[in-house]
Amino acid sequence: MTIAKHLEHTLLKPEATVEDIMQLCSEARKYGLFGVCVNPCYVGLARHLLSDTNVKVVTVVGFPLGATFSEVKALETKMAVEAHADEIDMVMNVSAFKTGDYAAVVSDIRSVVEAASPFPVKVIIEACLLTDAEKCTACRLVAEGGAAFVKTSTGFNKGGATVDDVKLLAAEAEKYGLKVKAAGGIRDAEAAQAMLAAGAERIGTSAGHKIAAGEA
After folding, report:
1. Where is the active site (predicted)?
2. Per the count of CB atoms within 10 A, which of 5, 11, 71, 201 is most buried?
3. Quick check: is 122 catalytic?
4. Which residue in 58, 119, 116, 68 sits closest to 92, CA to CA?
C-alpha cells in the first residue's frame, strides 16, 4: 500500500471557504488519498465532489475541545452520517478524563459509536495533555466505548503527534484491537513515514497532496 492510502487530507481551519474545500477534494482525488477530513458543515459538499471516487469523507465531532454534551455529539454524528460521512473523529471529554470520571468518558464515546454505526469512530485523546499512563488508560476507555481508532491530537492544542506517542499508543492499542491515527503537525513525507513506522495506520495532515506527490 502506498503512503497515499494512509493519508487523510485535512482542512479544519475555521476560515476555510467553499473554494478551499473544493481544492482539498480535488487534491485528494488527484493523488488517490484515503480520504479528506472536513468540518461537519462541509460533509455534504465533500461527498458530492468525491461521489465518483473511493476517497472517504471524514468529519469531526465535539471539535476541538470535546467538552460539549454527549447528546450533542451524538446528534452531530447522526447528522454527519446522514450527510454521508464515512468516518467520525470525535474528541474525548478530556475534562471528564482528567477528573477521573471514566464512566462518563466511556458513555460519551459509546453514544457517538452508536450514532455512527456501522461507520468507524476515531477518538482524539489530545495526547499532549496526558501523561504516558493516562494515554494507556485512554486507549482502554476508547476500546470500552466501542471505537475503532485512537487518535493523537486535534492539532488545535499545545502539541501534535509525536513518534514516541504513536509508539506508545500503537503498543497499547494492539491489546484492544484498536488502530492509531497520528495527526497534528505532520507536514512532510519524512514525518509521515516515521509515524507509519511507529505504528500509525492513518495520518491526518493538511499536506496530504504534497506528501503523496513527493513534494514535502
Report:
1. 89 (proton donor/acceptor), 151 (schiff-base intermediate with acetaldehyde), 181 (proton donor/acceptor)
2. 11
3. no
4. 68
Q: Which residues of the chain have pLDDT under 70?
A: 1, 216
Query: Does 13 qualify as catalytic in the annotation?
Result: no
Stated pTM of the model: 0.97
Separation between Cα atoms, residue 82 and residue 102, nearest integer Å: 30
Q: Catalytic pick from 89, 108, 122, 165?
A: 89
39-69 per-position pLDDT tens digit: 999 999 999 999 999 999 999 999 999 999 9
Q: Is 101 a catalytic residue?
A: no
Three-state SS at 203: strand
Residues 6+ apart with CB under 8 A from 3: 189, 192, 193, 196, 203, 211, 212
How high is the pLDDT of residue 214?
87
pLDDT for res 135: 98
Residue 147 phi/psi, 5° resolution?
Answer: -75, 165
Catalytic residue among 73, 135, 179, 181: 181
Q: Where are the beta strands (DSSP E) in 20-138?
A: 35-38, 56-61, 87-91, 121-124
CA distance 26 to 34: 13
Fold of 3-213: TIM Barrel (3.20.20)
pLDDT digits (tens, 9 = 90+) for 188-203: 999 999 999 999 999 9
Alpha helices in 83-152 (DSSP H): 94-99, 102-116, 132-144
The reported pLDDT for the residue numbered 215 is 77
